[in-house]
Amino acid sequence: MQAVMDFIHNPVAPIILAGIIVVLVAVVSFVVRSLKSSRTQSEVPSSTSVVPEASLPQAQESEVEGAQRSRDGPAAQTADHAAPSAGQVSTSEETPASEIEEERTESASIEIPESIPSRMGRLRARLARSGALGKSLLSLLSRGDLSAADWEEMEDSLLVADLGLEATDELMEALHTRVKVENTTDPQVVRALLREELLKLVDPDMDRSVNLAVRDVDGVQVPATILMVGVNGTGKTTTTGKMARIFRAEGHEVLLGAADTFRAAAAEQLETWGSRVGVDVVRSDREGADPASVAFESVEEGIRRGCDVVMVDTAGRLQTKSALMDELGKVKRVMEKRAPVSEVLLVLDATTGQNGLRQAEVFAEVAGVTGIVLSKLDGSAKGGIVVSVQRTLGVPVKFVGLGEGPDDLAPFDPDSFVDAIVG
Known about the structure:
This protein is of the alpha/beta class. Helix content is about 55%, strand content about 10%. It is built from 17 helices and 10 strands. The chain has an 8-stranded mixed sheet with strand order 5-4-6-3-7-8-9-10, with helices on both faces. A two-stranded antiparallel ribbon has the order 1-2. Helix 16 (about 385-395) links the parallel strand 8 and strand 9. Helix 8 packs antiparallel against helix 9 (about 165-180) and helix 15 (about 355-365) runs parallel beside helix 16. The longest helix is centred in the first third of the chain and has 31 residues, at about 15-45. The chain is elongated, with a radius of gyration of 42 Å. The protein starts with a helix and ends with a helix.
């Protein structure tokens, strides 16, 4: 006790006590830190078992990316080496998915044109319902025994239907002769004879096929080229679009050329038709551009792409305008510098009847028409123009349009046409 009292009264005692306290605090602090460190290490797994949050989704995406690399080839695989690490976020990985989605949307928007057999059956029924000539003849043939007045009315019906005077006279004479030989006035027998004689006039033996052969020119494969011509208002551009649908339905690769550079909406109209079936259009960005230049570029682009059909739409023009008709001849000559023109199709409005024959003659002289497309044949009494235009030009009717729908155009079938007329 005395020693303790002596220590307390010693002037050095406070210093010694302070030193002891500092040492104790340091020891306690060290022990506490050591305990915290050991507790933390016991709670956290080793670094080899840590799975980053992004690794699981990326593991799932790796299969898709592998398939994408196999399709895209070495370039895509090389680009993968520069991709961000697993722990990094990259928005560029979303681009292929968005492009695929756009392609799916575009594919979904492309229409599948109606097949040729299907549309021919449907249009055959429509022609039978709407042909005014057929209704007139059926009315006559249903009266029983035919009188002289009935025969005269039948002749008038054929003339009104634009069969033409020469063809009508020929038909009536042949029909009268056969009726006398058969010694009958039975309407059903007369109807059968009328069908046979009409079919002869329509001439089922004419070649109505469209030349779509891909040819070799100086070692280069060139597509079949089709030049579409006609006067204003015949539905030429619409018919061009509808024909593109027919060729697409048959599996052809088609390219359209908008050489109607005088009408502002013509190129847009053609593009609308083409986009519906996945067909591109070559056009000029400048209104009033040289149509021959557009036609030439269309053929060039068709060759470059490996298309098998190139269709060139031209501006509607009156046959009385010699300058415009000369320009049409130039368009054809320029196209032929790159590839032979396979077909020159003249679009005629069936409702114009005999008035369309002079148009046909002039276009045939200038452009060398190889076939006729009759538009607007439905609901008119002008079906006889099929016979008269073929007899005038010596070229066949190859297509007929019977409505406003996109697939209301079909190859012309003589048997179906005559059946629709005589019932």
